Amino acid sequence: MADFGLQKHDWFVNLFDIREMWIPAYFRDVFLGGILRSTQRSESENNFFDHFLNPFLSLVEFASRFQTAIESQRYHHDQLHANSKKLFPQFLTPLPLEKNASELYTLTVFYLFQSEWKAVCFSCGIQRFTTDESGCDHVSVVDILREKTYEVTYNPVDHDSSCSCKMFQREGLLCRHVLFIIKVVFLLLRVQMMICRSYWTWLNL
């Protein structure tokens, strides 16, 4: 904006202020792993480095302070990792998927996952289910909270899944719609195993 002298252009400034709302639309089909949460992230990073750096440093001072900043970040990261290992979050369900997620993610990321998991349990349902010629399942998942329907494609052979909301591509975190299908598949497999076990038990009587 400064390069082109647009700081006082009302329309452009307003558009820039709400960039979080329209920029993601241009990257829906590109995997970005959460980089589009860059406004908060870059502001946080700028604030962090402001404690160590200023415009009046010599090159040697800059290099030394930059190294100190990086070491501080590594120490903070190690603390978060250690906390994730010794602190146990409260689970919403007894399902193994939630417990596995708590072991896989840091606490911060797990709470983001748990927010989606809560929606899986209380606000998602199946509207339509079809299977194509290749054997892939196409499921219309109703999201009651958002009052929208999303299309999930699930491959039962390799368990590959994708959703029209593109949350995984944007943020690197599985959305509630894919998690809902995973939960349904897990429960179906569990029921099938219980039926088979009961059947063989009955035969052996």
Report what the structure shows.
With 205 residues, the chain is of the alpha+beta class. Helices cover 55% and strands 12% of the residues. It contains 8 helices and 4 strands; from the N terminus they run H-H-H-H-H-H-E-E-E-E-H-H. The chain has a 4-stranded antiparallel sheet. The longest helix has 28 residues, at 59-86.
Provide mean pLDDT, rounded: 79
**Rg of Cα set:** 24 Å
Total helical segments = 8
Give the N-to-C terminal Cα separation: 80 Å
Helix content: 40-55%
Can you tell me the residue ranges where pLDDT is under 50 for at least 5 consecutive residues? none
Describe the secondary structure blueprint for this structure.
Elements: H1 10-17, H2 19-22, H3 38-50, H4 59-86, H5 96-104, H6 107-123, E1 124-131, E2 137-143, E3 148-154, E4 161-163, H7 167-171, H8 176-203
Antiparallel strand pairs: 1-2, 2-3, 3-4
Helix pairs in contact: 5-6, 6-8
Pfam families: SWIM
Protein name: SWIM-type domain-containing protein
Organism: Cuscuta europaea
